[in-house]
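A reminder from the course coordinator: this example appears on the midterm review sheet, so study it carefully.

Given structure:
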């Protein structure tokens, strides 16, 4: 099964942005044990590439790692060398899309308008990241998918149990989750029990929708 198909079947990409990188090993362990198989670490995390390599070595085939907040080709090349399977941008960067295709990596550029979605898709994007998702909302997705039903959309940004079902009903193929699972307060306190409960809740919620 291709990575694109795996992400669609799974329905969740976890986004890690934190000021507590020392918590990454335990956090990712919680996520993987809770059934989260596709995890993105944002590039503003210190030593992103090193963490990607380390976490892949620890979890093996149970985990596909990506890197997010990629702003240029140099950053993208670095994380590809570290083993990132997918690349995520906050914007539509045609050079990063071309680089991802050159190295057979899945790429998810950020978009906000139908024009950006079409530009990214025509350039070879596997998914378009609709960001910030909570601003546009499910009704925007539903409307845009009318003329653009072929484009795979993943909303990110303040998604939670209240709006996730509506996003899937509107036609997204997966969701990007972060703050509903963990935040820096929980990580700073080492409250991984709460994080595990959050992971279990959202894994169950999405599984009930996508039928994984």
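Designed residues:
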């Amino acid at each position: 099964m291709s990575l694109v198909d795996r992400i669609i079947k799974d329905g969740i990409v976890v986004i890690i942005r934190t000021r507590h990188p020392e918590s990454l090993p335990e956090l990712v362990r919680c996520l993987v044990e809770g059934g989260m198989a596709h995890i993105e670490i944002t590039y503003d995390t210190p030593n992103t590439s090193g963490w990607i390599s380390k976490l892949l070595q620890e979890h093996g085939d149970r985990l596909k790692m990506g890197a997010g907040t990629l702003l240029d080709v140099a950053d993208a090349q670095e994380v590809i060398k570290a083993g990132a399977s997918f690349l995520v941008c906050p914007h539509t960067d045609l050079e990063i899309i071309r680089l991802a295709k050159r190295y057979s990596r899945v790429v998810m550029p950020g978009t906000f308008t139908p024009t950006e979605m079409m530009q990214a898709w025509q350039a070879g994007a596997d998914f378009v990241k609709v960001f910030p998702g909570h601003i546009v909302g499910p009704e925007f997705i539903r409307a845009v998918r009318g003329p653009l039903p072929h484009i795979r959309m993943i909303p990110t940004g303040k998604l939670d149990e209240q709006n996730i079902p509506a996003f899937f009903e509107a036609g997204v193929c997966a969701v990007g989750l972060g703050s509903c699972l963990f935040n820096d307060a929980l990580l700073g306190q080492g409250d991984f029990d709460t994080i595990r409960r959050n992971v279990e809740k959202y894994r169950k919620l999405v599984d009930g929708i996508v039928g994984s």
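The beta strands are 12-16, 38-42, 64-68, 86-88, 106-108, 110-111, 128-130, 153-155, 175-177. The radius of gyration is 16 Å.
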